[in-house]
Fold this protein.
Amino acid sequence: MAKIKSVYVCNQCGCTSPKWYGKCPDCGAWNSMQETLSGPEPEPAKRHISPVTSAVPAAEVLSINEIIADEAFRYHTQIGELDRVMGGGIVKGSVTLLSGDPGIGKSTLLLQMCAPLCETGLRVLYVSGEESARQLKLRAQRLGVQAGSLLIASVTQAPTILATIEKQQPDVVMIDSIQTIYMPTLNSSAGTVSQIRECTQLLIACAKAREIPLFLVGHVNKDGAIAGPKIMEHMVDTVLYFEGERHLAFRILRAVKNRFGSTNEIGVFRMGESGLEEVGNPSFEMIAGRPRDVSGSCIACVLEGSRPILAEVQALVCKTNFGTPRRMTTGFDFNRTALLLAVLEKRCGYFFGNLDAYVNVAGGLRLDEPASDLPVALALVSNLIDKPAPYDLAAFGEIGLAGELRSVSQVELRLTEAYRLGFKRFLLPKAAAKQISRPPEDALLIAVDSLRAAFDAAFVQK
Ligand code: TYD
Ligand code: MG
């Protein structure tokens, strides 16, 4: 009888090894090798036979002009923020992985999405491996989701799910979560690499064959990466991250991969008493409650996809009590902050060597765009010299290592958004100002080409 052996599988990259390692020999992740029991090896294919035989029928091909892809190709969820992130709606037969920290609202978002889908006459199958049908009902009641065509199944075995899809013929399927689903024929437990890979593959094949949109909820591990094999991200069409501070109300939905739309778009939600609400005017919400005449605050105007959003960057600089000064950032890249501090020191003469520096973006937004360099530098220097930046000033611009200000894209869009919210002074790179054809009459454009000139303009000119 064939022996069952132990193999060790990396839960980050899927690399297998007969021996346990503390560090994966392939991807270098620590503590990622998990024991899996492997059954007998399948018989190797007879390689000497040519794979091309007359018994295998050739696949049918279509000219690209014959393929019909119209608007009916997408389902609209009526949740504007979600549709935008998905590239305009849910594509039939697409597979979406929704991922995020525990308790961020993944189940809530999926369940809320069911209501408008059901209203348009679609049958939605919600498979929950985490909550019982009764618990889901209670949650649905709280969210006000009452639709007869929403079908709930509390199962965890992949073959049962496939049989249920076969029998019920739903139009949309949601699986919450992929880590709880397992194949009884595999020896490993649910949530392991082999189980996730196998179940994902089966479910994707089913969704593609039936043209059913499939949503999979995926957990993240403690480093924030999607738990399970990295290949899962390659297998699906769309990867969405739901993020935000757990204790703040804002939740941001971000597409990190999208085969049917842009990956830059974000959707902003607020978690309230009765579930998630869309935030239609995120700029207004992000800068609400901003302190007046306090140093260390600057308004940034960044672009998230096609949409400009205002955010308040705050900085606090104080004497360090340790040998090495602390640097802490929330919502802004840590290494970028170190780089900006180095530029401020070398090019502008502001020394942070014996000072702790904290940078925070209010509202839970994450600023990835280089255009947020200038507001971060302004906030840091404002707090260092204890001079507030003008209250009606918004800034954007990339900072180079020579202390120069570099241009950014979509300047007019940013300007219009900031002007709409009452900002009258705009600090921007000289090269970017050229993009503006007709600024509003009472707007003051302060176009500068160096960081030093930007500080002179922001803290001297009143
Ligand atoms: P949930 O969707 O269960 O998170 P996930 O599936 O990502 O783990 O969200 C749970 C959190 O949302 C929980 O902390 C409570 C909060 N919440 C509300 O504030 N209001 C609501 O109406 C609901 C349903 C949840
Ligand atoms: Mg959940």
Notes: The chain has a mean pLDDT of 87. The chain has twelve helices and 23 strands.
